[in-house]
Specification:
By secondary structure, this protein is an alpha/beta fold. It folds into 3 domains: 83 residues, Tetrapyrrole methylase, N-terminal domain (Cobalt-precorrin-4 Transmethylase, domain 1), CATH 3.40.1010.10; 109 residues, Tetrapyrrole methylase, C-terminal domain (Methyltransferase, Cobalt-precorrin-4 Transmethylase, Domain 2, 2-Layer Sandwich); 45 residues. Helices cover 44% and strands 16% of the residues. The strands form 2 sheets. The protein has a 5-stranded mixed sheet with strand order 4-5-8-6-7, sandwiched between helices. Helix 2 links the parallel strand 1 and strand 2. Helix 3 packs parallel to helix 4 and helix 10 crosses helix 11. The chain starts with a helix and ends with a helix.
């Protein structure tokens, strides 16, 4: 908790909380006795007009979530939008954010990243979404729940291959925080080796697609692909060439089609 956040919580007329039981423990710890209002994913649409009534009466309201930042894969976006639409000032109070915290400790050299948030819960939908992200050159940041983390990591491996690096961060800024980096091909086994590694709230960061080689390196990539095509089926040759050269799979696939004389 920052000093600014404590000052805000002490000064507002009410605190809108994702779970009032959890927030009550926080407020009690700091001796804050302000009124609390429950605001979560199941009642946010219904509660937004009531919070606007507080603002219209000249009262101030703090919006907090259980962990992370309100409206970032947490409730709050509807209330913020409603307040802004009525001309009320929305003041962000910076605090711990799981995505930024994980990136700062990931050790990745990527200058750009894509925050995706939660992947679809259903496996087929999740795999379709990942297929659309495979060739992006950015570090990819996902949130995941403990009961889906193994399946999601397995789908990441199937989509991106064994070689890409993944950072598995859980319970960030909390008592049982852990951050582990490895190749995607090793990630499922590492996660399943200890039940504690599957507990908590997760941030998964996957390296972006490496840049396709140019000049002499591009010629070398073609040489590797030609050698593999002479021994393997097209798709298998492309998959292996992608791992060996670090090239983009779709570009190597198009090159393979040309080399095979296929349209």
């Amino acid at each position: 908790m920052s000093l600014r956040a404590l000052d805000v919580l002490k000064s507002v007329d009410a605190v809108a909380a994702e779970d009032t039981r959890i927030t009550a423990r926080l407020l009690n710890h700091y001796g804050i006795t302000n009124r609390m209002i429950a605001l979560h994913e199941h009642n946010e649409k219904r509660m937004a007009p009531q919070l606007l009534e507080h603002l219209a009466a000249g009262r101030s309201v703090a919006l907090v979530s259980d962990a992370g930042t309100p409206a970032i894969s947490d409730p709050g976006a509807l209330v913020v939008a409603a307040a802004l639409s009525q001309g009320y000032r929305v003041v962000p109070v910076p605090g711990a954010n799981a995505a930024i915290t994980a990136l700062s400790a990931a050790g990745l050299s990527a200058q750009h990243y894509l925050f995706y948030g939660f992947l679809p819960a259903r496996g087929a939908e999740r795999r379709r979404e990942l297929a659309a992200l495979v060739d992006l050159p950015y570090a990819l940041v996902f949130y995941e729940a403990p009961h889906r983390v193994v399946d999601s990591i397995a789908d990441l491996r199937a989509a991106f291959g064994d070689a890409r690096r993944i950072v598995i961060a859980r319970e960030l800024t909390k008592l049982f925080e852990s951050i582990h980096a490895c190749a995607l091909g090793e990630a499922v086994a590492w996660t399943e080796a200890d039940a504690n590694r599957r507990k908590g709230e997760f941030v998964l960061i996957v390296e972006g697609q490496p840049a396709m080689p140019s000049g002499e390196d591009r010629a070398q990539s073609q040489h590797v692909l030609e050698a593999l095509l002479s021994e393997l089926p097209l798709r298998q040759a492309v998959a292996l060439a992608t791992k060996i050269t670090g090239g983009k799979r779709n570009e190597l696939y198009e090159l393979a089609l040309k080399l095979k004389g296929e349209p």
